[in-house]
Amino acid sequence: MLTLITGAVQDRSARGIAAAVSRLITAGRLPAGGRLPTVRTVASELGVSPTTVSEAWRSLIHAGAIQTRGRSGTFVAGPLPPRERLRYTQLGGMRVALPRDLSTGVPDPALLPDLSESLRRVGDGRWAGSYLDAPVLPELEGVLRDRWPYPPERLTVVDGAMDALDRIAGAGLRFGDHVLVENPAFAPLLDLLQAVGATVIGVPMDSSGLVPEALRQMLRDYRPVALFLQPRAHNPTGVSMSAARAGVLAEILREAPNLLVVEDDHAGDIASAPPVSVGTHLPDRTVHVASFSKSHGPDLRLAAIGGPAHVVDAVADRRLLGPGWSSRLLQGVLLDLLTDAGAIAQVAAARAAYAARRAALLTALRARGITAVAADGINLWMTVPDQQHALVALAAHGVAAAPGAPFCVTPLPGDHLRITAGLVTGGYDELAGVLASAAFHTSRGSGRRGLGHPHGWR
């Protein structure tokens, strides 16, 4: 196996080694279950440092091509069904239907604006344009630019926030690229970055966003090509980055002039915090994604991408070879919702309702000694001694929650659950009692004491 690997390597960089081994695995020349030579053995044979080979192995692990088994060594991964590898598929908690499902992270349908009047107003065919028309309705682009946290050089509309992140990653990332994300991070984003073969590094967070000194150190250690973050109502923790923190991070990011910042403002108009963006300071290197799924309706399937022309144009040009554009009819509905006084009032009411629900559940939990955070958005991040035991205990009470582990790039102090507080419309004391019972039951049953501190925040 050693000869096969070293003979296939032409480029002796970490990326080149990883690519060569990946090709051997894809071709079936390195069979599933086969044990790989040690890092030092491969490094010695190739005449490179063990660090270079370790980095290559790390890229292959993140891509799911190989797996480590502790002291037993590193092996070629077996042919697992793709869904079993996805963090996203683990978020359903116990994977059984329960009466109260708080694992979903979706908005309350009752708080979405009524589309009937908007559909009636735009259903007269005015948006039935030509294939050659601009992909974004000019009127909608004007409204979006007025709402943008900084003047974007270019702007386009795609089919939701994950579509935006997928297309940005596809346009700008290559196999083995180092990419920074928040830790914890949105689980589907981690799946997406793994799918493109990026090497993902988690940056610790505190109550204002990324920890500046940790970011500075990781820029020096890894020389990443991109940073993905959620500026408001972070999923899963609810943290919103402060304007002051955005300025501090921007100064640090000036040390990495080739790094691209990608912001996913997924909560949009239901976020209580004001819009904030690193792009205010670094507009030429920041791509901001504004989603309207949680605020105006998931089935609108619309998000806007704004930022430097070389990134947004690459996304728009590639889309011309596929869907071409997002439905102009739905763009017309969104335009109507963003400018209609009644719809604006409905979204404002939803924002206030979500804030009240978060606060009520958080207060009830804290009264029972539970450590949790829910600063913004629709989610609550709760610390428990043992994730699996807590999920089982909650299921016994008919409650489903999302496990915290799929959100973590690297383990955090303590285990966590994500609760969709935005779906809790009442009975806060009763639900808090169930959640507390699950946590304390876990503590007694596992012999582990205390509930820890969320994120290890400073």
UniProtKB/TrEMBL annotation:
Q: Which UniProt keywords apply?
A: Aminotransferase, DNA-binding, Pyridoxal phosphate, Transcription, Transcription regulation, Transferase
In what residue span(s) does the HTH gntR-type domain sit?
11-79
PROSITE patterns from the UniProt entry:
HTH_GNTR
Task: Write down the InterPro entries for this protein, in alphabetical order.
Answer: Aminotransferase_I/II_large (IPR004839), HTH_trans_reg/aminotransferase (IPR051446), PyrdxlP-dep_Trfase (IPR015424), PyrdxlP-dep_Trfase_major (IPR015421), Tscrpt_reg_HTH_GntR (IPR000524), WH-like_DNA-bd_sf (IPR036388), WH_DNA-bd_sf (IPR036390)
Question: Short name of one Pfam family for this protein?
Answer: Aminotran_1_2
Keyword Transcription regulation recorded: yes
Q: Which family does it belong to?
A: In the C-terminal section; belongs to the class-I pyridoxal-phosphate-dependent aminotransferase family.
One GO molecular-function annotation for this sequence?
A: DNA binding
Origin species:
Actinoplanes aureus
Looking up SUPFAM superfamilies in the UniProt record yields: PLP-dependent transferases, Winged helix' DNA-binding domain
State the name under which the record lists this protein: Aminotransferase class I/II-fold pyridoxal phosphate-dependent enzyme
